[in-house]
Here is the input.
Amino acid sequence: HFIFRRLIVLHVFGHELTHALWSMLFGGKVEEIYVSRRKGGYATYTRGNFLVTLAPYFFPLYAIFFMVLHEIVRGSVLPYIDGLLGLSIAFHIMLTIFSIMKGQPDLQRSGVLFSIVFIYMMNCIVLGLIVCVTTGRSAGDYMKGGAEIFRYVWPSIHEAFNWLVHRIAAPFKTPEYLSARTTDVRSDYSRLPQPQRIRHDGNG
Here is the structure.
């Protein structure tokens, strides 16, 4: 439990930093990033869209960092970097699922069903490309092969996906969740027409 709580703080920091970086990518300015072990965190920035909102769920910031190190560093430390890369990918997958199952308001802002589909698709692409870069495989062949495999396994994916959507969407359907989140979501979006200050808050 002690270790998991420390991992949550690391996850929240990466989550809010990813929101901020993607806002900057679209020309926004970051006004504040706050992270707390007990209260979660939030990021306040001036420009956002659905990519900025969902970026932490498909852009594994720590894994990207170790991927870059893998391409730069050579020698005896490389196996350790690769080990950290693998751990960071597992960290991203585990904490992303944990965050979604908690009922993050980020998904509600962009639409729960759309968000789940988009996050799943982008993780398949991004994580696959990370593996291609670090193993020297062709990214083009990966994308082409993935398209071929997808055609054959789609029936099984469709069945599993229906089950997953039902399980993940459940927290968003409870009266307690809806009543607790309505005020937060409205206050967030009420800022968009005026100086366009966007604040994403929560536990990550």
Summary: The chain has a mean pLDDT of 78. The helical segments are 2-25, 50-58, 61-72, 78-102, 105-110, 112-135, 139-173, 175-189. The chain has eight helices and three strands. The two ends are 18 Å apart (CA to CA).
